[in-house]
Amino acid sequence: MLDNFPDKPEFKECRAVHHKLKYASGAFSLKKEVDHFLMAGRNPVIDQDFRLEGLKFLHEQLKCEQKELQQLASDDTLCRLSCSLVELTKCENRDVVIMASKCLGVLGPINMKTISLPAPPISIGLQLALQCFEELPDVHKYCRIFHCLNTYLTDKSIELVQSASTVLKALLAVKKGIEFTNGYKSQLGENEYLFHYLHPFRAGKKKIPTSKVTKPDWDMFQTTVDQQLLWNPANSNHGNWLVTLTTTLINSGAVRDELLQLLEPVCSIKVEFCELVLPYIIHDILVNGSDDHHEVISRQVVSFFSSHCGQSRSGQVSRCQSVTHAYIYPEGEQSICMNTESVRTMLDVIQYLRQQQRPQKGRQEMTVWDNNFWLDVDYLQVAMAAQYCSAHFTALMFAEIWCDLQRERSESDRGSQRSSQGSSQDTRIDTLSEASSSRSGVSVQDLLLEAYSWIGDPDGVYGCGAGRKADSSSRICTYQQENQWDKAVVSCDIQMSQSGTTNQYDLLNVLQCFGANHIFNTYLQGIMGQDDVPNLTSETRELQFEAAWRMGMWNLDSPNKIETGTGFHESVFKAMKSIREDHSTFTDKSLNHSRLCAVSRLKDGCLTSARKLYPVLADLMCVNIVNQTSDLLKSFREVGRMDLSDVNQILDTDSDIKFTLPTLYMKCSAMKLLWEKTDNKHVFRIYVESLHQLATSAREANRHQVSERAIATVKELDISDLSLSIPSQIEEAKLFWARGEENIAKPLLRGMIDKLRKLRSTDKSAAMFYPQTLSIYGNWLAETRSENPNIIMENYMEKAINMYEQLDETGDRSVDAYLALAKYADTQYQNIVNYMNSSTYEAKQSLMRKSQQEADRLREVMGESAKDRYLRTLEKQTEIDQHELLCMQEDRNIYLLKAVLNYIKCLRCGDEHNLRVFRLTSLWFNNVHNKDVNSMMEGAVKEIKTYKWLPLMYQLAARMDVKPHRDTSQPFLQILDKMIYETAVSHPHHTLFCVLALANANRDTELLQQAKTMRRSSKMSKSQADNPAEEGRVLAAKNMVGKLRENKKVGDIVKDLQTLCDAYIQLANWNVQEYKTQTKPIQLPAQLWLTKVKGLRNVPVPTKEIKVNASCDYRDIPHIEKFEPTFKLAGGINLPKIISCVGSDGTKSRQLVKGRDDLRQDAVMQQVFDMVNNLLQKDSETRKRQLQIRKYKVIPLSQRSGLLEWCEGTLPVGEYLVGSKGAHARYRPKDLYYIDCRTKLTAATTTEGKYKVYQEICEKFQPVFRHFFFEKFTSPPVWFERRLAYTRSVATNSIVGYILGLGDRHIQNILIDCKTAELVHIDLGIAFEQGKILPTPETVPFRLTRDIEDAMGASGVEGVFRRCCEKTMEVMRSNQEALLTILEVLLYDPLHVWTISPAKAYALQRQRGREESGDTVDVANTTADIIDLAESSTSRNSETQENLNKVAERVLLRLRQKLQGVEDGVQLSLSGQVNYLIQEARNPKNLARIFPGWQPYV
Q: CA 269 to CA 263: how far, in whole Å?
């Protein structure tokens, strides 16, 4: 892996060979080029200074492949590339730094979809070594030391090379060094190269290994080490201090590790090596030294951090990121405890010690929590030091440790706080903050707020007091966080008037962000004209120059020279001014200085937060835009033309608007400058389009002032081209509409419609924009209900569609028009349907019948020729009523057909609204006898791509039948049959399992009958024959399978799948009771068909997710190669089997094969989760937070067996907390045993008794789940990101689970991923609030017990959890019609039995109680069991469809209430509803009444 060679004659041959080797297997995509560049960077032989050619080549690739570059934003490739380029900006070669900056500028402020940045990659050799010694963490330090010394052998410093050689000879001559060498070679095997390379430094064979271990000398240690000046000298630089400290410790006699004792020669000259080994040395002293050694080290480290806090308190960092970073000490006065490098080194010591296991004291085993206390440090002071060094994640972790420690020490307070969850979590932070301020002068609340604001988590600050604190500084920070710049302006003004401060930066920054450019400029000129105001600070000058280049004000006094203090925006301003004045040489110089200024911000501090990288990427993109403008101008002057196709593209990502706005501003300013210099009409078009893009982006981000200014700029231009002026006018109308100024927006758009109607016959642009304005205006009228529905549809929506069709427009605009009309017609249709189902309509029908009957009686009495006035009145009224009903039915049919037609067109023309297929299907299912609807659906099968029907395949297959009945018709069945057939042929791997599950509904019994193992087969056959509807579906499915077997394209796939399904079903029903106590792998007997399944080239691994391919090409997907010959049992009443399927790509996939269990409910719930994920992905707020429901594959094989994807790397929450080596027993050994808790709760009979017992249990059984994250994720950035992912996952699952009424959420039904910390909910059989009809009803909306909350950290439910709940609920509410449509289709599924019978409910809780008490129940998986289950299924299916429909209607009604915020009969706001649910879930009285097997105390 090498970079490109220079394009010079002497390297011509090398370039040719390199090119041939690199592209031997074909041309590279951009992703491959990036991966190649990253791999070359990990080559230890290549120094950063020699990567210039690779960077040049990468820069050209990134510029040329803009489209592919946008695609890379979907994974971590761009994140890894950005981090690699940032590392290159730190090298000493200026050309490399500038070229790396140019590459970063092409990337721009991409959304890297992560909060923390990955650590810099280590060399491949060291990474491999650490992986091999993963189980031996003590050896890691030796791996790092030897690899580091190896790199020093090629250093430029001769002295360092000699010292490294000396040390290596000494290390390889002692016994421990030889032992490590041999162990290293043994572990790495063929991959070992390090000690082959270091072989010359080994001692001769005849030389006896020495062991240099100095005797401990306490007096020398005390004399040399226990010195304040050694640990915290008043005046010293970082290098001298660290070298002195490290060498003194090595020579103190307290270091017992003989390898560490030999490192002094390198430590004395290499600061970076000292930073590496200092933690190892201190750890060795603490492990092997006495209590006196511990006391000295601990006291000196504590003193270091105490001194830091004492000196930094006067210069605390402001939470507002607009304020400068840290307090600046005069030259020569800074003590070592205020040097960021030195503080970071001491933080590394604390962090390394935390990751080491403390020695056992007596019988007491040390936990991960105990590892935090090697030293008696105040973690709040350490957290403050971490924040000072910009190590924000470390600061958060240490602050959390301090908070947990305070709660543990407050025994009395802890009992009351932990036992009652009714108190708000924010009071904990407030109380702790008061305690921290009184003890150490450091406010933990302010510290957390500051750290969270720098990290960029949009929700974390609200868990620490943001939005609750009333002081002006806190409010300004909150307003900035929420983009409420109007409020921030007023607060800044009040703050300045009250404090009398002369620092103008905050107010100026807020004014600029607010978009008040003219006020900003006037205010700045005013303060500059005052004699009593000091010179502007460097930060304020930067704001001044930024405003100048944005507004094109080139009259600022700024000499054409680059000085030491020239800032970024001043350099950019000078570069653009020099372009304007044709000083091209100075332009390049200014641009390079701008790049160096930008990347210099990355060299200071610890770059672990992606939030700190985004502003730099935005600045570098701005520089690239100016650079490109300069190049275009040069080209225009030299050849008289410009290639505008390469004008810098702004990546279409989900980046925060505060980072993309500067690049949009720069593009506008640069294009304006280029237009003024060239007077080119194409440049002018790009300039106007850039302003339009700025206005649109700002409006969508609710930065309305910025949008309004951009539109005003466009209006000032003399634009005669309608294709440029009309979009801005439309955008202006949209802006007013977004701001709620409807009375301005509507007339504005109405005037445009009139204007375009007159011009559309003569102007092509007018013809293009006319239907767009009609569609927008029609939507606005529909939204405000300002016009008759028929007028809205005919004059606006249908008219727009007709024009689009005349123009052959098939893009997004026409699709949106189709959808708008479909939704509006659907709404009108639904209104009529709802009215016709209402009591009002029924009463009217009854009155009409009574009137008709009375009229008939009068005619009988008076005769047909009677002219009674009352009779005539009755007849007339009846006629009017009948006409009204007839018109209503006609309108209903018209609206229905328009909705169906336009849903079909919407689905046919684009993929943006594919979820609408659910609504289309629902309308079809509800109107199966309507000939026109069936005719349209017949056309839809031909026009709509087959993959769009895949999400509904279970529901479509469930309605198959061989002959029509009341809920179907013959045309309906024919269309359905064709739809399923064509979808199965196009996408067999996504469809066939659904059809086969129906065809194999009774396959379990058939296979057992074939084996002659059941004596009651005749009874089974009879019971099945009694259900003709079920038999019709099964027969229809078998007919479909038969037709597909004859299809040349999928016939072989169907045959292989049938073979595989039979093998799975046979295994699922195989009796394994004799193996139920075994934990080791069990051999599969040869008679099982699965052992003979090999090389199924037509069948992919069923439990692997197969991405839907619109082109229907599935040739390259991995297929089933074989199954492992052994299996394991998963436990549980039915003893499901865990098997391993080996794919053709060599990967193994574990699968769970279940028998005697209907998995259709779980499969449908996974289907719902998939739809919810689609909705969450479409919303910008939930997408930004990556809120998703974790899914797994569920494949029903028949009515009684199925296959599930094994969730690799997961652990049941209950297993971690109260398993055999559970966290509760490890961290709280003196607490109550969890089974005793359940016994106590079970013994309580009354409601008051249960509540009292629950309170007592909570006092004696404390939560410990927070330790999961300290155990699994030792690195602070990873710890934070995983805990954030956990909290978001809990929030999303809680709200979605509540909406769906998901129950039975005990601690074994919730898994946690040990790598990502996301939750996975399994066993989804209790849904749609069926948990409320259990013998002991469930009383909480979701599981939010103390342990679940404990893992969220000190903020608890406040901040991240609450706001993610609100964002998820907002998506659920705003998409309630789509959700209800989806669930309606599922709830009326004739095969989907989601209701729970009383017998099943009783058995469920009875079995749960036995499992919790440790009892075992022997249930042989016999034929009789299957018969009994089949009989129960038959009786269940015999329920009338009317009763099931009534239950479904009741469920849908409650779902609608939830989505409208109705709780206990009261409609709540969104935040009010979320708060209600959180309080209900945490309410001890609710938790006390729940079933004890649910374990509410955990």
A: 11
Q: Which H or E element spans position 1312?
A: strand 1310-1313
Q: Comparing C-alpha atoms, which of 1201, 792, 835, 1242 is closest to residue 1005?
A: 1201
Cα dist from 209 to 174, 177, 198, 202, whole Å: 5, 9, 17, 10
Give the Cα separation of 1149 and 1138 in Å (integer): 10
Count other C-beta atoms under 10 Å from residue 123's C-beta: 16
d(CA 43, CA 39): 7
Q: State which amino acid sits at residue 1400.
A: K
CB neighbour list of residue 485: distance below 8 Å, 6 or more residues apart: 479, 510, 513, 514, 515, 705
Contact yes or no for 350/382 (Cβ under 8 A): yes
**Cα-based angle 945, 951, 955 (whole degrees, multiple of 5):** 110
Q: How far is CA 846 from CA 199, 876, 1330, in A?
A: 102, 17, 36
Q: For 167-226, write each residue's pLDDT tens digit.
A: 999 999 999 999 999 999 999 988 888 998 898 888 776 555 555 556 677 888 899 999
Please answer whether residues 419 and 1484 qualify as being in contact, where contact means their C-beta atoms are separated by less than 8 angstroms: yes
Q: How many residues does the chain have?
A: 1498
The DSSP bridge pattern shows strands 1082-1083 and 1096-1100 to be unpaired
Quick one: tokens of 734?
């949209």
Tens of pLDDT, residue by residue over 632-684, are 999 898 888 888 877 766 665 678 888 999 999 999 999 999 999 999 999 99
Q: Which amino acid is at 957?
A: A
How many whole angstroms separate alpha carbon 725 and alpha carbon 732? Answer: 11
The structure's pTM equals 0.92
For residues 668 and 661, what is the distance between their CA atoms, to the nearest angstrom? 11
Count the helix, strand and coil residues of the chain and give each as a percent rounded to the nearest 5: 65, 5, 30
The backbone torsions φ and ψ at residue 1342, rounded to the nearest 5 degrees and listed phi first, read -165, 170
Measured between alpha carbons, how far is 177 from 914 in angstroms, rounded to an integer? 64
First to last CA, the chain: 52
List, as one string, the DSSP characters of 765-818: HHHHHHHHHHHHHHHHHHHHT-S-HHHHIIIIIHHHHHHHHHTT--SHHHHHHH
* CA–CA gap between residue 1354 and residue 1329 (Å, rounded): 32
Q: What are the Cα distances from residue 524, in Å, to 322, 535, 680?
A: 17, 12, 34
Work out the number of other CB atoms within 10 angstroms of the CB of residue 1025: 11
* Strand ranges in 1191-1255 using DSSP code E only, listed in sequence order: 1194-1196, 1201-1205, 1210-1212
**What are the backbone angles phi and psi of residue 1080, rounded to the nearest 5°?**
-85, 165
3-state secondary structure 1087-1124: CCHHHHCCCEEEEECCCCCCCCCCCCCCCCCCEEEEEC
Tokens matching residue 698: 């700002």
What does the alpha-carbon distance between residue 431 and residue 451 come to, in Å, rounded to a whole number?
19
> CA-to-CA distance for 616 and 604, rounded, in angstroms?
13
- What is the C-alpha to C-alpha distance for residues 1363 and 1299, in angstroms, rounded to an integer? 17
Query: From the CA atom positions of the chain, what is the Rg in Å?
Result: 37
The predicted pLDDT at position 1441 comes to 58
Backbone angles phi, psi at 1143, to 5 degrees: -85, 165
Q: Is 1120 helix (H, G, I), strand (E, B) or coil?
A: strand
CA distance linking residue 1082 with residue 1139, whole number of Å: 10
How far apart are alpha carbons 284 and 921 in whole angstroms? Answer: 70
CA distance linking residue 335 with residue 306, whole number of Å: 13
Place of tokens 């006699």: 253
Alpha carbons 874 and 852: distance in angstroms, whole number: 7
Cα gap 1117→1106, rounded to integer Å = 8
Spatial separation of the C-alpha atoms in residues 371 and 364, rounded to whole Å: 13
> Residue 916: which residues within 8 A CB-CB, separation 6 or more?
819, 822, 903, 906, 907, 1378
